[in-house]
Amino acid sequence: MMPYGQHFLTDERPVHKLLDLLNGAKVNSIVEIGPGRGFITKFLLSRGYKVFAYEIDERIADELIKTVNDEKLQVCVKDFLKVSREELPTLECCVGSIPYQISSKIVQKLIILDFQKAILIVQKEFADKLMAKPSLKKYTFISALAQSFFDIERICLISKNSFSPAPKVDSAMIVLNRKEQTPSETEYITFLRRVFSSPNKKIEKVLKKLSLFKGKVPDKHVRDLSVAELIKVYKSCREWLNDQSRTF
Length: 248
Prior knowledge:
Blueprint: E1 8-9, H1 12-23, E2 29-33, H2 39-46, E3 50-55, H3 58-67, E4 73-77, E5 94-97, H4 103-113, E6 117-123, H5 124-131, H6 141-149, E7 150-158, E8 163-164, E9 171-178, H7 185-195, H8 203-209, H9 227-243
Parallel strand pairs: 2-3, 2-5, 3-4, 5-6
Antiparallel strand pairs: 1-8, 6-9, 7-9
Helix pairs in contact: 4-6, 6-9
């Protein structure tokens, strides 16, 4: 096992699907999260993309720089979760085979940074969670959050044997396309965290307990609310708080 729990992709087939998705994206520069030894990176460079790669492991970053000698590649030794919007060269598109244990944090980071498109390889279970519908057991805070900001599509399943070292579970490639109309990121994330702290309670009771809202809301449990309903409740809470001259 590598120090940061990396599992390096070794199968070219998923990469070709990723490149097919990029063909219609009309982007010239791409941010890559955790390039590792550059398996995906090399394909991106061969297609003429400028790649800005963020790698947390200094040793692997040095190896990547030495083995991939291309002026279109810029490697930054930094934790992607600590990257600011101002330092990013592009917010059009990012790709990455991301660590399983921080997948949720990376999706939240993509939302806050305002990326327009992301093509990610994630654990299959996490992909299922991101796409879960209301009332299902897998529908959680991260499901509602991701679906509030992105249209999400699963492209393909990827066998665990496509990685080295092989993880214990299969993966999936997903594409996230930013929606045109989205809530205010920071406030909405805080709102969702608060209401999903009690997913099995009626939304009205949760809001009253949190002193967020006293108006009319759907007669549903939090876990049964659609993304559209959650955004509507959030906007109502925001209006009420503004009327009360309070900060959210």
